[in-house]
């Protein structure tokens, strides 16, 4: 491959492979059954080690491993128009709740826990 082709190819690798290497904070709008919406953010990632780091640093959660081991239930479809579907996992927090989602088969499969302090 010529030098020009290599230099042209390198930016594409970083643009398309960036989600593989790090987490991303994704803005999401979650619908309520009452017709209202919750505007929030998901921290999306591909590796549970990364999820543990996010949980400890951002949400001050010490028992992430317990949350990750528990069985998850199918919750909602992956929010359309977001990058959430590009990842394997996501963390979401609102108030005193922290949720860990596994993203598979077009749905968020989640398990939640209560926090000692609220996080908005």
What does this structure look like?
The protein is built from three helices and five strands, in the order H-E-E-H-H-E-E-E. The chain has helices at 3-21, 48-59, 64-69; strands at residues 24-31, 37-45, 73-77, 89-104, 107-119.
Q: How would you sum up the major sheet?
A: 5 strands, antiparallel
Overall number of strands: 5
What oligomerization state is this entry in? single chain
> For the terminal residues, how far apart are their CA atoms?
50 Å
Helix content: 25-40%
Structural class assignment: alpha+beta
Shape type: globular
Q: What proportion of the residues form beta strands (DSSP E)?
A: 35-45%
Strand order of the largest sheet: 1-2-4-5-3
Summed over residues and divided by their number, the pLDDT gives a mean of 85
**Helix count, DSSP H or I runs of 4 or more residues:** 3
Residue windows where pLDDT falls under 50 for at least 5 positions: 10-15
| H-E order | HEEHHEEE
- Write down the Rg: 17 Å
């Amino acid at each position: 491959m010529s030098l020009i082709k290599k230099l042209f190819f390198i930016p594409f690798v970083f643009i398309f492979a960036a989600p593989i290497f790090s987490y991303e904070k994704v803005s999401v709008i979650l619908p309520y059954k009452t017709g209202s919406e919750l505007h929030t953010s998901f921290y999306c990632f591909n590796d549970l080690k990364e999820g543990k780091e996010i949980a400890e640093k951002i949400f001050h959660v010490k028992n992430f491993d317990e949350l990750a081991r528990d069985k998850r239930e199918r919750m909602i479809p992956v929010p359309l128009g977001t990058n959430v579907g590009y990842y394997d996992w996501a963390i979401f927090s609102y108030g005193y709740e922290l949720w860990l989602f596994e993203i598979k088969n077009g749905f968020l499969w989640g398990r939640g826990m209560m926090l000692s302090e609220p996080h908005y």
